[in-house]
Amino acid sequence: MLGSLQENPKSTSYDGRDDDERIKYVIRKSVLLTFPWILATAFLFVVPILVPLIVSQVPKGAPAILDGGSVLILTVLWYLFVFGFFLQNVLNWFFNVLIITNKKIVDVDFVGILYKNISETTLDNIEDVTSNVAGAIGVTFNIGALYIQTAAEKREFEFGGVDDPSKIRDVLSDLVARVKNHEHNA
Amino acid sequence: MNTTPSLENLIPAAGVITVTDFVVLFFVAGYLIFAFLLMRQIRLMNKSFSTPLGSVFSFFGRLHFFVALILLLAALVNL
């Protein structure tokens, strides 16, 4: 469920799927790329522990600027914000996918909470699939990008940060070859 | 005679607390808008790409929004 390449996912569908269309693969970014925001969440979670240290620096007798109720509300709001930050990042990771069906590829992009973009093309429109691995993290963990050239209006699909991009390129190329051979023989 | 003005003399402590209570209310109200947008976004995401985890995300999105709503009510009561 959490890997970059998910094969024959169960109970999974997308908006606009045909009745005779089956989802063969779902590709999402590597779990390793989630570490920066998981660490950020952990850091934000422990930040309130530092507050008493700051408060202890305030000279005695200084006027209070917050009452007890506001302190409680701000504390709950802070932890709610940490949860919201974590949830939004989980959603962005989980729902930014490249879906490969037996008929087409669908690129679903969500950025933040205010942007959505979905592109698709049929498999027989795919002309070339390229994978690359670059950079220290990419080479160390075999994480890279896929570039799918098409004859459709949207010329190129790009999907970065996937585990083992060569394997995904191979899987996709084989699928495209099968579809084209099937069409050629029909 | 000490004539140095202090903040405490210019603005009474009760006045400062009222101002900060309104600032807290403003923050919570702003956060409630974010929580609402996130809840709507989860619905849109589940519609675009439905998975077995969709109901889990919806639950957490709603929980997040309702906690923010309760917090707004608490901030209003705290005024």
Characterization of the model:
The complex is a heterodimer of chains A (186) and B (79). Chain A has helices spanning 35-46, 51-55, 68-95, 135-141, 165-185, and strands at 5-7, 13-14, 23-28, 97-101, 104-111, 115-122, 126-132, 143-150, 156-163. Chain A has 186 residues and is an alpha+beta fold. Chain A has one domain (1-7, 22-186): PH-domain like. A 5-stranded antiparallel beta sheet of chain A has the order 1-3-4-5-6. In chain A, strand 8 and strand 9 (156-163) form a beta hairpin. The two termini of chain A are 36 Å apart. The two termini of chain B are 38 Å apart. The radius of gyration of chain B is 21 Å and the shape is rod-shaped. Chain B has helices spanning 7-10, 13-48, 54-77; one strand at residues 49-50. Chain B has one domain (12-77). Chain B has 3 helices and 1 strand. Chain B is an all-alpha fold and 79 residues long. The model of chain B has no long low-confidence stretch (mean pLDDT 88). Chain A binds chain B through residues 1, 9-15, 63-67, 69-70, 72-74, 76-77, 80-81, 83-84, 87-88, 90-91, 94-95, 97, 99, 108, 110, 113-114, 116, 118, and chain B through 7-8, 13, 16-17, 20-21, 24, 27-28, 31, 34-35, 37-38, 41-42, 44-45, 47-53, 57, 60-61, 64, 67-68, 71, 74-75, 77-78.
Short description:
The complex is a heterodimer of chains A (186) and B (79). Chain A has 186 residues and is an alpha+beta fold.
Straight-line N-to-C gap of chain B: 38 Å
Alpha-carbon distance between the two ends of chain A: 36 Å
How are the strands of the biggest sheet of chain A laid out side by side?
1-3-4-5-6
CATH class call of chain A: Mainly Beta
Strand content of chain A: 25-35%
Quote the CATH topology of chain A. PH-domain like
Name the CATH architecture of chain A: Roll
Number of helices of chain B: 3
Run of helices and strands of chain A: EEEHHHEEEEHEEH
Biggest sheet descriptor of chain B: none
- What are the segments of chain B in which pLDDT stays under 50 over at least 5 consecutive residues? none
Unreliable stretches of chain A (pLDDT < 50, length at least 5) are none
